[in-house]
Design a protein that fits this description.
With 242 residues, the protein is α/β, with parallel strands linked by helices. The protein has one domain: 3-Layer(aba) Sandwich (Rossmann fold). The chain contains seven helices and seven strands; from the N terminus they run βαβαβαβαβαβααβ. The strands form two sheets. Strands 4-5-6-7 form a four-stranded parallel β-sheet, sandwiched between helices. Strand 5, helix 5 and strand 6 form a beta-alpha-beta unit. Helix 1 packs across helix 7 and helix 4 runs parallel beside helix 5. The radius of gyration is 17 Å and the shape is globular. The relative contact order is 0.15.
Length: 242
């Protein structure tokens, strides 16, 4: 199952991991985008279910977990806990408190609630990938709420990995750098960065494509990563190496 399935990364993971033997549950707050993804994936999966949900709402998460239980015949094998928002772009001293709270509600509470309510459904050998960010590894001026929230996702990832290790459930995080797509367009616009300069700080010379992130998620969910839990993969074209 995938939260934030209507976004670029959510869709890339859903399409990249498609299999005619698999059922997939897609969750997003934006129903039109969710339906568009469902239509694009039609025929690629054995079955597709969609749930419109604000992941910061516990009743909403309880609802999608109940759908997951029924749809998955009592269990979940792969969980991409991905939904998130950027929030405002402003100096910390001018950052609106209500926006700060909303970002943490979606990015932290939403991840926590997903782990809390999908956790009991995860079968032995299941894998979870939470979406953090390079913003969860370093600071970023103007993005106080986003950076704080993505640091918190790494803490939740490590805690769940330790708590569920004896069940054979692996929990890891993905830390994307700048990814070409809707969210990054909004971020760069807010930071007033010239489109031609967007890839300048990426040593490999380009922004990540959503498919780059999807490949790393697929690896963490695969048998090839069977001994990897409680860690992160940074997909940033080498930005953190400098």
């Amino acid at each position: 199952m995938i939260t934030g399935a209507g976004g670029d990364i959510g869709y890339a993971v859903a399409s990249g991991m498609a299999s005619p033997q698999t059922r997939v549950l897609l969750v997003d707050v934006d129903l039109p985008k969710l339906r568009a993804v469902e239509d694009a994936l039609r025929g690629m999966y054995r079955e597709i279910a969609v749930v419109e949900c604000d992941v910061s709402s516990e009743s909403g998460v309880v609802h999608y977990s109940n759908v997951a239980r029924e749809f998955g015949r009592g269990s979940v094998e792969r969980f991409f806990n991905n939904a998130g928002i950027i929030g405002a772009i402003a100096p910390l001293t001018e950052y609106p408190a209500e926006v700060f709270e909303r970002v943490l509600a979606v990015n932290v509470r939403g991840v926590f609630l997903g782990l809390k309510h999908i956790g009991p459904l995860l079968k032995r050998g299941a894998a979870v990938v939470n979406t953090s960010s390079v913003g969860g590894l370093t600071g970023q001026p103007g993005l106080a709420a986003y950076v704080a929230s993505k640091h918190a996702v790494l803490g939740l990832t490590r805690t769940a990995a330790l708590e569920w290790a004896d069940r054979g459930v692996r929990v890891n995080a993905i830390c994307p750098g700048p990814v070409a797509g809707q969210m990054m367009d909004a971020l760069f616009e807010g930071l007033d960065l010239d489109p031609d300069d967007r890839a300048a700080a990426v040593p490999i010379g380009r922004l990540a494509a959503p498919q780059d992130i999807a490949e790393s998620v697929a690896f963490l969910m695969s048998a090839a990563a069977d001994h990897i839990t409680g860690t992160t993969i940074t997909v940033d074209g080498g930005r953190q190496a400098g």
